[in-house]
Amino acid sequence: MMEELSSADGVRASRLMAEPSDYAAIYAIGDVHGCLDALLELEKRIVEDADAIDGRKLIVMLGDYVDRGPQSATVLYHLIAAPPAGFERVCLRGNHDDAFLAFLEGDPAGDWVLDHGAVETFQSYGVEIDSDGPRAIHPLRTAIRAAVPDSHLTFLRTLPVLLTVGTDVFAHAGIRPGRPLSEQSDDDLMWIRRSFLELGPGLPVRVFHGHTPMRLPHVGPDRVSLDTHCYRTGLLTAARLMSGEVTILSVGGEAEADD
């Protein structure tokens, strides 16, 4: 059974935990970035792949649902709806989702998103941004906040940042090397890059993550990287975890894992 682990102070985003025996197969999907068609195609492939697998099955979305691709709003509508028949679904929060939420809520830190793909996100809600001209932040925030449904805002606010299944860990960006999972900050889990990629987790775990675009997915003993730059390449990638073994599934191109 999925367990929610919330911080004592209630400030951190929630973290989830499940037992390895809870699921016969887990499918982790890399960064979608507004590419709804690729997501629907990949879900179809996952459903076909799982058809012969008995037991509970879980889809873990690794975050970054918005920005850069053309259909961010529709991706959120899709993820708020029910998962494919026969599956459960957990959606984790990515750094782009986090920044978009911050912008909607008036946090100046969210202004980062304006230079990192917000043009396409806002357009998907019917709000135009002049990408070359000056920006009046307050009217822009007011316009997009009026356009974003409350259900999307609630979805973004309640996204967890970590799922732990035995010694397998799922987070958008990775983890702070060597730091116990209980001490990982939200920023660690959503934004970390260089130190995690260079040093690995520094813990006896295997981390499934996106965040850092790669030409091919990477499958290693301590991390599995699944961001294949879908909004540029059309390639969206998932990893199936079953009985401890990892298998790559992808759509939009031929992807062989970089071992």
Protein model, in words:
- With about 260 residues, the protein is an alpha/beta fold.
- The chain has a single domain (about 20-195, about 210-250), classed as 4-Layer Sandwich (Purple Acid Phosphatase, chain A, domain 2).
- It is about 30% helix and about 20% strand.
- The protein has 9 helices and 12 strands.
- The longest helix has 15 residues, at about 35-50.
- It is globular.
- The model has no long low-confidence stretch (mean pLDDT about 95).
Distance between the termini: 32 Å
Beta content? 15-25%
Largest sheet: 7 strands, mixed
Q: What low-confidence regions span 5 or more consecutive residues with pLDDT below 50?
A: none
Q: Helix/strand-derived class? A: alpha/beta
Overall, the morphology is globular
The CATH homologous superfamily corresponds to Metallo-dependent phosphatases
Quickly list its features.
five-stranded mixed sheet, 259 residues, single chain, alpha/beta, Purple Acid Phosphatase, chain A, domain 2
Topology:
Blueprint: E1 3-5, E2 15-18, E3 25-29, H1 36-50, E4 57-61, H2 72-80, E5 87-91, H3 95-104, H4 118-124, H5 137-147, H6 150-157, E6 162-165, E7 168-170, H7 186-191, H8 194-199, E8 206-209, E9 218-219, E10 223-225, H9 230-233, E11 236-242, E12 245-251
Parallel strand pairs: 2-6, 3-4, 4-5, 7-8, 8-10
Antiparallel strand pairs: 1-2, 3-11, 6-7, 9-10, 11-12
